[in-house]
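Hi everyone,

Forwarding the result from last night's run.
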Amino acid sequence: MKYPIPKFFNPAQADQIYMIPYEQRFEEALKYRTQNQVTSSARDAVRIGLLIIDAQNTFCLPTGQLYVGGQSGRGAVDDTIRLTQFIYGNLGKLTNIYCTMDTHEIMQIFHRLFWVDSQNNHPGPATTITVDDVLNGKWSVNPAMAGNILGSPSQHVGLQKFAQHYVESLAAKGRYNLMVWPHHAMLGGVDHALVSMLHEATFFHSVVRQSRTRIEVKGGNPLTENYSVLGAEVLETSEGMAIAQRNVEFIRMLLDNDYLIIAGQAKSHCVAWTIYDLLNDIKVKDPKLAEKVYLLSDCTSPVVIPGVYDFTPDADKAFAEFEAAGMHLVKSTDAIDSWKGLKL
């Protein structure tokens, strides 16, 4: 069965920032629980988790700094509508909801202030920095970063050495080159917040199911990118000193569910890399665990930078690999009960 969508749900608000009337929604959720005979998630015989990746204003609103429009231009907006409808339609079946939040500050390796050229100019947004760019001095670490990040201006040479190691590590892994991203998901800013419509839905779910929404913050390490919530792009210095760790506890939490559903932004970047990391962990534990993972293919969109790059083929290739490994590609409009291998 599908649960009724609350009357306050308004698809036209998907691309808007608005204040949630929490106390009103709380009372409505209590009535909803009684009227629809929804039980506490603690009583679920089958535990279903929903992982929502980076559904934040910066990615989900057309005014966001890194709006994920996909090829249609409405990508993340339509994804938000479908994902919200999916949450409401399955309120009594979703045990746990997890929301990741990309979180940045100004002085990070993928931001403009970190880098300078020989004239002390900073790179523009969407600049790619390659191994050759660092080796030939096209881009160098801003000397001011050493004092702010490492605590001493004398650490500049070491930080420059690390920067070279960083881009070399990315190249060796065969992932994307270092991208100087436009400032986005800035801690404390409006663009950092979860998109209002989904935040409202997770709040409503928490009250109806008496289940806390888990917020998992990522991306604050100044020395590495963090596309995946499960692990940073680079974990060590060239000397083997750890700068970050894999999110082992969160991986365990996700896989503790009988089934795990994944959606969010962007399909080509943070969603894909998170699933890659999860799949790698699954392969070590038990490859059959991949069969408990369901990807909402109509609730995620790839990065498309008009006139610059379309990451749609990269995203589609990644999802084909996930499906080949045993994960399921499903649509939010299909009943959970009809999904292959999922038994309630």
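Residues 156-173 form the longest helix (18 residues).

Cheers,
N.
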